Amino acid sequence: MSIAKPTAKKQHNPNKAVLLSILLAGLGQIYNRRYIKGVLFLILEVSFILTLGSFLNHGIWGILTLGTLEGTDHSIILLIYGLISIILIAFAITLYVANVKDAKKDAIKIRDGVKILTPREALKNVWDVGFPYFFVTPGLIMLVFIVVLPLLFTFTLAFTDYSQYNQPPRALLSWVGFENFERLFIGNDGGVWRDTFVSVFSWTVVWTLVATTLQISLGLFLALIVNDPRVKFKRLIRTILILPWAVPAFVTILVFSAMFNDRFGAVNTDILAIFNLSLPWLQDPFYTRIALIMIQTWLGFPFVFALFTGILQSVSKDWYEAADVDGASRMQKFKHITLPHVLFATAPLLIMQYAGNFNNFNIIYLFNEGGPPVRGQNAGGTDILISWVYNLTFELNQYSMAAAITIILGLIVTGFAIFQFTRTRAFKEEEKT
């Protein structure tokens, strides 16, 4: 190792190294006599400017203007180019900041007379310390373009006027600010979007709470019964109760869709016909919603049942014996021993059940495609937010409105999950360890 000379310590100026690095990446390292590192930074910056300079310029122009010539400029492509340019610039800024910090750190070491590693020692140190980052970085970069870029595209699309009647390249898109959100919340277009959003959002909340709570309650009730020592043939009963989980969900939904058919379904023709009844399961939103809740309860309770069954078997019998000695009733033992233990162990998974049903597209679409239609709304009577977004995107071509609703949907799910997870005792106990 080489040590900076005492005379060089006072003359070496870290501020000068920082200024040189800001002017051109690598100059600060060259000033610090770290020639290999300086040349590498210099090559990276020059290569970035020469190869991507024109693309970045075109991309930034595109995302700001979304095109100027109708029939020639494609606003969507320009928007994507602009987002890619922003990501590349973010990467470049990160490397540039790293270049400045590195130059300043080495300059301070030289000024203070700290030992400076030789190129071979520095390379070995970088390999030893940065070994994990060399393998993680390619995956992170890929993640940015596969996950972050589509999210950014959806986010930005919500602030444009992209619709069925305004599609590029025939027409150019424009930035409209929060106009799409105002149509949803204020109803400045006559109230159609606001009324539909309120209706769909309300049903989504009711659907999530009622369907999920019923499947959890039924799963817990059956698990308690099967776990009772007085019940015989436990294995057979557990096998029968888990069978609905073994059948693919989409098959079960299609079968139930046929069973609830108004004209030839088994529910009307074979079951309700005994009581001289025939209900419009697929024509009246009220009955369709009831059918959907019953089907989701049937689909969801086996998983909850299996989950609770395993947890109940881990509850110590000594607790119940101590409760019997204290004269606790069956309900008191359930309230103070069984339920807290079960919820403590399963709270994160139960929260995921609610979040999953909030975005449960399959059952809504496969059963009746979100129908029946409702007069004065552009969503079906059983559409939830996610199925409404699907219809807006692939059937009505209201892309910007679909993107705006997607942002709202994402914020709701994210906020709900963060709020619930941070208040779950299991996570609080984990933080204390």
TrEMBL record:
Cellular location(s): Cell membrane
Topology of the protein relative to the lipid bilayer: Multi-pass membrane protein
Gene3D superfamilies assigned to the protein according to its UniProt record, in alphabetical order: MetI-like
UniProt keywords, alphabetically: Cell membrane, Membrane, Sugar transport, Transmembrane, Transmembrane helix, Transport
SUPFAM superfamilies: MalF N-terminal region-like, MetI-like
Keyword Ligase attached: no
Residues that span the membrane, as ranges: 39-64, 76-98, 133-159, 200-224, 236-260, 286-308, 337-356, 399-419
Entry keyword Manganese: no
Record domain ABC transmembrane type-1: where: 201-420
Function: Part of the ABC transporter complex MalEFGK involved in maltose/maltodextrin import. Probably responsible for the translocation of the substrate across the membrane.
Family listed: Belongs to the binding-protein-dependent transport system permease family. MalFG subfamily.
Protein name stated in the entry: Maltose/maltodextrin transport system permease protein
